[in-house]
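Protocol check, entry for the methods section draft. Step 1: assemble the input record (protein sequence plus ligand SMILES). Step 2: submit for complex structure prediction. Step 3: store the structure tokens unaltered in the notebook. Ligand used here: magnesium ion. Step 1 record:
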Amino acid sequence: MPAPQTGMLYAWAFSKHGNTWPRRAAMPPDAEIATLFGMHPRSATLLPAQAHDSRWCATIRGSIEDDRTKRTPARPATDKDDRQVKNERIRNVAIIAHVDHGKTTLVDQMLRQCGQFRESQLKGERILDSNDLERERGITILAKNIAIEYRGIKINLIDTPGHADFGGEVERVLMMADGCLLLVDAFEGPMPQTRFVLRKAFECGLRPVVVINKIDRHDARPHEVVDEVLDLFIELNASDEALDFPVVYSSATLGYASLDPDKHTDSVQPLFEMILSHVTPPESDPDAPVQMLITTLDYSDYVGRIGIGRVVRGTLRSGRPITVIHRDGTKKNEQIAELLVFDGLGRKKVEEVTAGDICAVVGLESVDIGNTIADPEHPEPLPLIRIDEPTLHMTFRVNDSPFCGRLGKFLTSRHIRDRLEKELQKNVALRVDPGHTPEEFHVSGRGMLHLSVLIENMRREGYELAVGKPKVIYRELDNRKTEPIEQCVIDVPTANVGAVMELLGQRRAICTTMETRSETTHLEFTVPARGLIGVRNRLLNATNGTAIMHHNFYEYEFLRGPIPGRTNGVLIAMETGQVTAYALEGLTDRGVLFVAPPEHVYAGQIVGEHNRENDLDVNVCRAKKLTNMRAAGADKTVVLKPPRILTLEMALEFIEDNELVEVTPDAVRLRKRLLSENDRKRASRAGK
Ligand SMILES: Nc1nc2c(ncn2[C@@H]2O[C@H](COP(=O)(O)OP(=O)(O)OP(=O)(O)O)[C@@H](O)[C@H]2O)c(=O)[nH]1
Ligand SMILES: [Mg+2]
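Step 3, stored output:
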């Protein structure tokens, strides 16, 4: 790296951080700069190339400054600090972690062991994952509040989703908490989302309690994981106070927590004690004019919108007039119809809520995320909360396939528009824009799962629609196009590392870490988000299903160059009818089929993946000619390979620009945008 640019970066870093920098001499200077720039320290190797470009330095520096000024302070400070009182009877705690590290299971155990509930109230596992999709997929999609009483103290516990697509939700709910439990899997250690949520916790000024979960695993390595968590804290520039974090070891499935990983206890009591001693009680002025920040929305068909948040100051009373201050500064006077606090697994109606507690307000029509509910006499807004920008978009269209309306109840563009508008009421990170025609909508979200959960919900409610290829959202920086880059972590048996490297290499990934852990290798990459679309399936094929992959948003970077699309063509049905085994038998050498008899297909539907790169029109409905002649040989039984069943996400990742996924209550079908073979030929000739 040439000296002037390096000097400039260093000078900037010094000017920002004065004599507190560099705090730790141990970290190589490049890594330190990378951290300051919000990059992964291990990606410091990236820095020299980009740092050649002084304009890059200048613009990135500008955007960091912007980001800093926009960043919301942890909790609004009042100027009457001397009147602040601690509410010792409440603790507000959020549970944060990477996906599947055991948050919801741990909450289960806390519910079971707090002694407040009858056995019949706590049926099954992962009680809080209550909606259908959450139960089916085994993941948490929406953050949920519950309240537990322990030794006379009310613990407001917020279970958060661990999947990267729902990270924005975590960021907002952290605004309600005074402390957090950072769960880390005793084998996997910190993963990308652990880093993301921990950074958010620091931004909110929280000091986490570290919980090393799953210590019952035979491959658990709790001591090493604690060291890795410490490294992560250091990487994220934790304050010296935060670096001194308390650690609890737990097994959520066996229902115990302990201060010593080798000691098996019989309850999660040490965890409760840790919450009481390490999470600070809420501190505020209960006599000041009321202020509440809305951080989550709920919706009920009976009462409409329900705003959930924390009363930051004063006392909120039911039936009293209040002012709702919107994000754009407009104010509306309304009246609270009902006030509810969290109580066990449900909510309890109350007359008033004092500062520090978390509550739900019913009856406010215009309430939205980020609004402040304030005293009409003193309508002072709280600082704005940042809402994550979408990174991926898809086109939702009216389903116009020959099979439309067979089972679906809601088919028209008006139905789809109304449904999307309803979704916008509570799905904060979602954006909906009109498409090129009145039949189309551009729907943008935080990732594939975020949008596919919406599509899946719509399908179950009886909607039919056609969805186009997901595309990442580019941004302009300094008149140049930038694209979202994801941090991707892959754990794979060491023998398969070559296959992973090859696959990710084609997709412009840069390997930042490679570590061997017993029989597996832990790989970390930064990779363009567009390169990750469709990679999961190929990765599983290339590694015989052994790879475990996680990724989350990392940063926007200048375009990394072209990435190859799907290498194989598709098999397209040439006529409408019922699939026959006889026809499929003749096509087994052509590729992998997605359909099986006696399914119905239509002309233009994609029925398989071709072995070659071109598309092929095939007849999957061909029946055996019947004659009056008795054949000498008996008919053979046709044995077909089972078809490849594509889930909604797999289908969305599979399609190309000129293809669509048709989603109906009974099926997910793939189709060509132009159903007729002649139209397709004409279009491809026109394209040439
Ligand atoms: N062996 C072992 N497995 C656990 C433990 N805790 C949770 N699990 C398992 O880990 C899986 C994920 O658990 P969840 O509680 O759904 O994890 P989560 O963090 O809530 O996941 P998301 O909400 O999707 O982020 C489940 O299959 C649990 O049975 C534990 O202490 N030991
Ligand atoms: Mg969960």
